[in-house]
Amino acid sequence: MKYVYFFGDGHAEGNAKMKEVLGGKGAGLAEMTNIGVPVPPGFTISTEVCTYFYAHGKTYPPELKDAVAENLARVEQSVGRKFGDKEKPLLVSVRSGARASMPGMMDTILNLGLNDETVQGLARHDERFAFDSYRRFIQMYSDVVLEIDREHFEHELFALRDRVGADSDAKIPAESLRELVGTYKNIVREKGGREFPQDVHEQLWGAIGAVFNSWNNQRAITYRKLNQIPDDWGTAVNVQSMVFGNMGDDCATGVAFTRNPSTGERKFFGEYLANAQGEDVVAGIRTPLPISKSQVVGGEKSLEETMPDVYAQLEDVYKKLESHYRDMQDIEFTIQAHKLYLLQTRTGKRTGFAAVKIACDMVDEGLISHTEAVARVEAGQIVQLLAPMFDVKEKSKAVQGGRLLGRGLPAGPGAATGRIAFSAERAVSMAKDDPVILVRVETSPEDIAGMHSAAGILTTRGGLTSHAAVVARGMGRPCVVGAGNLRVDYSKGELRSEGHEPLEEGDWLSIDGTSGEIIGGKLATKPSEVIQVLIDNTMQESESEVFRNFDRLLKWADEIRSLGVRTNADTPNDARVARLFGAAGIGLCRTEHMFFAEERILRVREMILARDEKGRRHALEQLLPFQQADFEGIFRELAGLPVTIRLLDPPLHEFLPQSEQQISAVARDMGWGFVELRAKVNQLHESNPMLGHRGCRLAVTYPEIYEMQVRAIYQAACVVKKEGIDARPEVMIPLVGTVRELTILTEMVRRVGSETLKANGVELPVIVGTMIEIPRAALVADKLGEVAEFFSFGTNDLTQMTFGYSRDDAGTFLPEYVDKKILPKDPFESIDQEGVGQLVKLGTERGRGANANLKVGVCGEHGGDPDSIRFFRTCGLNYVSCSPYRVPVARLAAAQAELEFKHYEG
Amino acid sequence: MKYVYFFGDGHAEGNAKMKEVLGGKGAGLAEMTNIGVPVPPGFTISTEVCTYFYAHGKTYPPELKDAVAENLARVEQSVGRKFGDKEKPLLVSVRSGARASMPGMMDTILNLGLNDETVQGLARHDERFAFDSYRRFIQMYSDVVLEIDREHFEHELFALRDRVGADSDAKIPAESLRELVGTYKNIVREKGGREFPQDVHEQLWGAIGAVFNSWNNQRAITYRKLNQIPDDWGTAVNVQSMVFGNMGDDCATGVAFTRNPSTGERKFFGEYLANAQGEDVVAGIRTPLPISKSQVVGGEKSLEETMPDVYAQLEDVYKKLESHYRDMQDIEFTIQAHKLYLLQTRTGKRTGFAAVKIACDMVDEGLISHTEAVARVEAGQIVQLLAPMFDVKEKSKAVQGGRLLGRGLPAGPGAATGRIAFSAERAVSMAKDDPVILVRVETSPEDIAGMHSAAGILTTRGGLTSHAAVVARGMGRPCVVGAGNLRVDYSKGELRSEGHEPLEEGDWLSIDGTSGEIIGGKLATKPSEVIQVLIDNTMQESESEVFRNFDRLLKWADEIRSLGVRTNADTPNDARVARLFGAAGIGLCRTEHMFFAEERILRVREMILARDEKGRRHALEQLLPFQQADFEGIFRELAGLPVTIRLLDPPLHEFLPQSEQQISAVARDMGWGFVELRAKVNQLHESNPMLGHRGCRLAVTYPEIYEMQVRAIYQAACVVKKEGIDARPEVMIPLVGTVRELTILTEMVRRVGSETLKANGVELPVIVGTMIEIPRAALVADKLGEVAEFFSFGTNDLTQMTFGYSRDDAGTFLPEYVDKKILPKDPFESIDQEGVGQLVKLGTERGRGANANLKVGVCGEHGGDPDSIRFFRTCGLNYVSCSPYRVPVARLAAAQAELEFKHYEG
Lengths: 906, 906
Known about the structure:
Helix content of chain A: 40-55%
Oligomer: homodimer
Structural class of chain A: alpha/beta
Number of strands of chain A: 34
């Protein structure tokens, strides 16, 4: 078993493809060495040692010691210095390096190999530099390996600076630094209860152990959780000969991106510090300077100006790296005595804007193919291109001016500014005059109209999967949730934040759903360029490069993907937007949202409260024209595309008032007695409404409700058909658990449908299918497949029932479940492939077994989640359906899923 | 395809094994013919014609007509009469006969073949008989085939009786009957709009069609639903030459059981009516007389006395039939001119008491084996042997106190006390509040729902084979029939008995279905003999044959079964009872019931309301001694047997007060502010508590709760162990959905357990397992099987989540689902094999795949349901667990399941 891999002198034992074994950093160092980029020699201890380390009670494989010694000798030979040598000591850095980048999450030690003797060897050339390095090393090593608080060291450093009157570390004289080393060693003795280790090998093994241990420190664990990096990957350790950016003014250190990571602009972009070590840049102690002249905004001197020759070398290197890796690189470099060394290269993180632009530019530059461009952009990032934005300067001025009221979870990206409304009703009415921010403790389904009217939504409770968050993302509304430091007081009509004047209804408020910031007062916003071109028609395509790249990328994606993308839309406007975003139809049109509108809810309540079927039918007749008009509008927007309409789903009591006050108001409106109405409300109350009398169960009891809806659908189709519009309704029965439910209701749809068509003298093919959202439905999918013409997995409910988690209640334990790794992710965000996924797979197979032509889709929230989309592709689904603003994400993710699937399939 | 099967002259084309094709009656007639029992010749039209009839828009197979004609000719030849002949007309009966007995549910027509001409042929011998038969035929045919209300005919009959001064039909003179026939034909003309059919073939085919149609009349559908008879079995039609019990005083008709169907006593037991047709006995219009001398209680004359020669023939026949069928038979016979004819034989319905006694007696008689005895007793019926009886002393005091209102025939054993309801509808509605005694003159198939709701049934007319008697015995309801000294007055709503105050609807009444006594007012009931011997020790085994047979039968069952039977018990007393009933341990001990006791709930609430973990731990410490004491008690009762203890399952808010009033009271008790407590209650409120923060989810959040419970279990085990008692706790984690939950909590159990054992210096093997009650748990059972030492399917919750039915709410639609055949049965009563059953099967297979030694059981309600037990046996489960009183049922059902499984497996 090979545990250690050497790199140096233009050859390396590893290469870029060995990330699993060498980690990202080690693989990058090896690859750079191999392609002739100047890299200080060193070696990488593989991730397999980390695995061994944790599997064997934190011990090493027996053969490791020799392998390290042997490779250390090669490094000594390469640089002509010896580890621990008094005259020409070799100093090394010891750094972690996992398969995936985890910046700053694990520990690093520089200048290792210094002790009271070797420092003298260094001091012979430059005393100040030697003791500066030594004191840095003691502090870093003590912090990382000996676990002594760095505070103690820094306290002494600052005291020294005061004493000698130095306004920066660089101005502390050598003599004082030598003293400081003594002081530091005393701190180690006092706080650590031991002498600072003088044996350089002890130093090295201490550092290696610390790096392996750092894989499981709290920061690293949290980072991995947030970024979905498996715990068992482990880290490699890179031991590399030191080069010094802090040996004088002809030295420097810096980080750079080969293109702008924020905008994607094709310009070398980075920062450096002269006479400094790498950690100084990252730590932000000194403000770094721009690398390129083009970056300069004030009077700073760029590296291009101060060291034009080294800058030219750097340009050569970055071009070499970019064309070698064919992607934007994030590099670290050090200049020692005018000589350039590269210490790291990796694929650079970037914003959605940058990702799209870089991918498109590289296609234009001939560097990558369309397919590669599609694979390059993280699908979820593309929503950034759709969100409204604040003016950057105005926002930072507001924050600096003390207007930042607090911070919550960034639940829906984009910027919004508007007047505060504390209720959905107020939001609707206020929105007629000004943009509104709906501010609630939390939201519920009754607030939908208000949320729709609002420019943005703020809640003080709830997480990223709360009602507010989910609905807001679906609507494309900027949203901040769980802003715990803010208090909503409905009774006083105030929003309070400590240290600020309370805000009242009607006051201006701004929220940034991308950052989570909440800012008092008005801030100008503007729609994204994509929206301006595509939806609002306020900008020309030719004016917006952002739009053009967005559009190109998605078209390339469309050429690759086999999975269809539809949308969940309940209104003509949503349908229009989704179509512009590229939706190939509606996968879920919920009909109950139509029931909540002001002029309709009264009819709905009359229907529910009717004393007999006749009364219900009468009320339903009043509702029919409304539903029909809704469907007509949608069919017009989606001419030629399928529109899957789900018949009524929620339990009836959701349409009734709940509080005594509301009951009283409704009773008055409807001419009912309060007591009588309250009794009816109580009678309809359910212990577990999620598992109650809803969906097709309602239709079994009250067939007239679905009959009205079916009639409305067919009549609407007939009306638009006569206008020459190609309406393609698909009728979907929700909450089916047994084949008889589906048979009975499918027959009803067919019967009412043909009556209606006949009465209108129209012919129209309509297909009828079922939701698969109850575990039993997936289990009996072979039977259902004999009746249904399509399946649509309702993965929200399927997840609720398969796990036995009520989404409304799971907030009390689900976050802890993710924290404690009982679940890898929130199963409402990304489908639980292990459990719920089995039912999706099995339901699809069994359904297709009964009917090979069965169309199968997904219409839960998961339809817009890239990981879930990848899974659905492996299940062989025909399409996913998601909210309009997720359609571009789904198109891109579907293409990426296709690429992975084909790769996996061989 | 053969559609018609002849029987007669000592040979039949069918036999007893052809029930599927010939129906029960047809198969019986064929078999009796073959073994030499005197049966009037006839033929059976097979059930396949019924299937064809419904599949082809109520038409017949083309070849049927000829086949019927041909068989009719054979009958004519056999009896020497011709169908439709003026001189010697052949008359036939047309009767339904399904595979399973459905008494009185479908239609029958007698005397078919009479018309204005053929009646003359008959009248030549006996004019009165001829016209009596003709008027009966017209009425019956008009009712069944022409659908003319029988009311019209009866009205004329009663008017005629008054006119001629006859106090019974038998006393109406021939001339008047001839007139009556004319009147009847007028009724047909007026009410039916047609002439009464004179063509005998038209009569025959009309009757055949009516029988097939009657398969789907409402009564038949209801009966099949209650008795779980598939709708697609269909009925056969039996056409048989008539014999007449009403041709004079040397004629009679009767029904009999080869043993007493109520007690099982080995005595020929039956009733007859001289000079009557069969329908007269069943309809209960005249009170029939006993067959055997031994049955005589008053001064009636038995058949044994009036026709000793025929009685002797009948004894020969019944003995032949019983030894041929090796089971108790229910026979119908007719005596025509001193000659005996058998019209039907079938396995006799019997009470649970009779079933057990007959099975045991037949074993003793060498007729059947132990295995056959076990297979003979319907498992659910055995609970009758556990049903309460009246306290003898209290009853005799009531009788002596003048409360005995009368006496009827003991038609269904057991004691019942309840409020009087005079209609089935009232019985259904009143039964929601109190036990009900349904009191009717006689019952009819429309009363079935009311009979089901009633605790007991009383009729003033009819015999032991009347509708009321047969149905009540099938349902296990105490029943008294033919209480002739009581008068029901529906119009006044009174039950009168001379010398007593009339009773009204709602008054209390008591009936003894074993003795036939009817007693006014409420009477305390006392335990059955089995309970007295086994549980209460108030009776010696030697005193109770009932107990001895019960015990023998269950021991034979135990020898056969492989499936273990445990019990669900939460208290030492339940544990004791269950053990006495034969439970081999506890399969489910719920710990939360212990939390509700008065002195504990306060501690529980303190625990829930505690502001931090410390507060919770403090309250839990107070609870620990209670829990420990409970467990000690259970371990003592179940020494040497496994006790599966489920850790806390319900959500915490179940322990808190809900109404404002309760909250106020609790707040006062606990020294909390009302507002504060209400806020806490609201905070814990869940939208769908079934899917909320409960079970192991609570333990993930608040590990201290389970830690206390585990400590209490282990400490209790240590305490009793020191007393020398072999405690065998098994710890069960509820609501597991992911393997991590199980891993974390199993580790906790192990840790706390070994701490406790160590502290007590005790060694004890404890196994830890999980409920499988969440669909996901079944899906990931391969993973769970790696950790768990046992699985227990919680089929109640598994049914709720797999169907998405909240048991608390499903009442709004589930009855309708069963009515409309969307579901074959209530899935909470009998496991849904098609859906939920897949998860049980798959979970078991996957769990065993990971751990071949995994013990797997079921602890939902289904553990006591015979059909479900049969299914669990096929899944290969190790045991079922049910409530203590269902343990005998489960033992018997498990043995029967084993027999079926082995048979099925070949």
